[in-house]
């Protein structure tokens, strides 16, 4: 115990390693397939190295390479300053305030080049809760490593020599499938509460276990996320929901004690047994699309997550005597207003959500020209996908979804026949859905701009 304490004071690691000296792994140990390293990442490290600087692939890309996965993007770390980096590339831009970084562009491909951060953050400006507001202190590589969040995210790969530099036992944690924060967990979460969301996302995405001391403070420290600017929390939530493992992430958030009181959206989603089936289906379908490399629209996703809240309010307004369509808009206003405040939902996303919700009652009008008009709605495909989710979750009879699938695919006269068949069928059997109890009035729902190609969940199938 005393030995451990002395080691801590001296900054010597428990395994006796000097934290300023990395373990250097050769190809035989890391087995990174060079074909998984992007051409542009190699160009950037090479250019920097030829100019006399150190340069490595770093962070998530090294983690993914070690796991045998082709990284989706490459971050580069260097001892060159942002200005020195910028001068070496034709299309390079210094961005950021909190952390200055350089964006190096090759056509559509963007690489982030970061200068090694030093541990001068004790003097960095902080808010009253200890959150670091800005940090542009540069320093040596070992300090940069210590500033990173998790051991598995703090390794450096040099494509030229094919070596991996590991300061914090990241390679062992990769092998043991463990997520371990670097340093004292409480202090690291205080500096940046978003790390609590990151650990959950990585655990779910990689199927790793959160090491107990990394996990323990999270439920207690969760409220600190309230002090993080809403836009940053929203970005992280979006990453989480679009990770291809959204369902697993939400379960993990709940089990880590992160879902309560801090993200209003999650409270709504996770605490509602009736909505759970719908949300589960929506997230399963989103995860499926992400894994298949198809696009997902955030508007569709958030419209699904909040649908049951809209339904509840819609019913309440109708019970209070509002006509169905205005009641739906009032419900949408209420839900969007609360969520925009808390989640910084961008206007464009909110517009998509409203369009998707507003279309729903129109799917139940299968007479005259109404279905033809609906087909022409610029967001038809998204509204239709949403309708299918409602059917699948049992909120609406499956027959409505099947009918629309047929009507959508049909041509010319077939559509007339389908319409005739729908109208010949005895009405009823469609109870249970609020939209069905009363037929909506003739007036179509208010459209709120946001036109564009029918993007569906994400476009083409
Ligand atoms: P992803 O696969 O989601 O891109 P990533 O690990 O690459 O995962 P990024 O947000 O791209 O995540 O960050 C790149 C690297 O920067 C991380 O691997 C980590 O080393 C460091 N980093 C990012 N965010 C933080 C943070 N909040 N605190 C400390 N280090 C961070
Ligand atoms: Mg990354």
TrEMBL record:
Catalytic activities: RNA(n) + ATP = RNA(n)-3'-adenine ribonucleotide + diphosphate
CDD domains hit by this protein: NT_ClassII-CCAase (cd05398)
Residue ranges of domain tRNA nucleotidyltransferase/poly(A) polymerase RNA and SrmB- binding in the record: 207-267
Keywords: ATP-binding, mRNA processing, Nucleotide-binding, Nucleotidyltransferase, RNA-binding, Transcription, Transferase
Domain Polymerase A arginine-rich C-terminal intervals: 321-443
Keyword Cell division: no
Residue span(s) of domain Poly A polymerase head: 55-180
Enzyme class: transferase
Secretion signal, residue range per the UniProt entry: none
Biased composition (Basic residues): 435-446
Residue segments, region Disordered: 420-461
Active site: 73, 75, 149
Coiled coil (UniProt feature): none
E.C. no: 2.7.7.19
Family: Belongs to the tRNA nucleotidyltransferase/poly(A) polymerase family.
Function: Adds poly(A) tail to the 3' end of many RNAs, which usually targets these RNAs for decay. Plays a significant role in the global control of gene expression, through influencing the rate of transcript degradation, and in the general RNA quality control.
PANTHER family reported for this sequence: POLYNUCLEOTIDE ADENYLYLTRANSFERASE FAMILY PROTEIN
Protein name (record): Poly(A) polymerase I
Species this protein is from: Massilia phyllostachyos
């Amino acid at each position: 115990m005393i030995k451990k304490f002395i080691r801590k004071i001296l900054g010597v690691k428990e395994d006796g390693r000097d934290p300023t000296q990395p373990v250097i792994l050769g190809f035989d140990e890391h087995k990174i397939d060079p074909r998984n390293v992007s051409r542009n990442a190699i160009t950037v490290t090479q250019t920097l190295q030829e100019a006399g600087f150190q340069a490595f692939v770093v962070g998530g890309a090294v983690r993914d390479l070690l796991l045998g996965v082709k990284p989706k993007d490459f971050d580069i770390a260097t001892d060159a300053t942002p200005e020195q980096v910028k001068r070496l590339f034709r299309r390079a831009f210094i961005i950021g305030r909190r952390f200055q970084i350089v964006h190096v562009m090759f056509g559509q491909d963007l690489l982030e080049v970061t200068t090694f951060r030093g541990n001068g953050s004790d003097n960095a400006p902080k808010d009253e809760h200890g959150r670091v507001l800005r940090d542009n202190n540069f320093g040596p590589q070992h300090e940069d490593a210590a500033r990173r969040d998790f051991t598995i995210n703090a390794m450096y790969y040099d494509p030229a020599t094919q070596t991996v530099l590991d300061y914090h036992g990241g390679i062992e944690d990769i092998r043991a499938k463990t997520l371990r924060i670097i340093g004292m967990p409480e202090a690291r979460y205080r500096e940046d509460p978003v790390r609590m969301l990151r650990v959950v996302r990585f655990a779910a995405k990689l199927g790793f276990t959160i090491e107990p001391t990394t996990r323990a403070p999270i439920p207690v420290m969760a409220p600190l996320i309230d002090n993080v600017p809403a836009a940053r929390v929203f970005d992280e939530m979006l990453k989480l929901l679009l990770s291809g493992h959204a369902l697993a992430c939400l379960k993990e958030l709940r089990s880590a004690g992160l879902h309560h009181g801090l993200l209003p959206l999650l409270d709504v989603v996770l605490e509602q047994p009736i909505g759970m089936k719908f949300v589960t289906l929506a997230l399963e379908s989103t995860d499926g699309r992400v894994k298949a490399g198809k696009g997902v629209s955030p508007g569709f996703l958030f419209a699904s997550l909040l649908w049951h809240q809209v339904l509840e309010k819609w019913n309440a307004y109708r019970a209070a005597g509002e006509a169905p369509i205005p009641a739906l808009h009032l419900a949408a206003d209420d839900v969007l207003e609360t969520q925009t405040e808390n989640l910084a939902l961008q206007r464009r996303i909110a517009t998509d959500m409203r369009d998707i919700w507003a279309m729903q009652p129109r799917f139940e009008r299968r007479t005259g020209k109404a279905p033809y008009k609906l087909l022409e709605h610029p967001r038809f495909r998204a509204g239709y996908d949403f309708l299918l989710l409602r059917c699948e979750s049992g909120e609406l009879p499956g027959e409505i979804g099947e009918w629309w699938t047929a009507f959508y695919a049909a041509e010319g006269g077939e559509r007339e026949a389908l319409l005739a068949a729908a109208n010949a069928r005895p009405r009823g059997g469609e109870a249970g859905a609020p939209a069905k109890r009363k037929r909506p009035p003739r007036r179509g729902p208010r459209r709120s701009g946001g036109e564009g190609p029918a993007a569906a969940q994400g476009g083409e199938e």
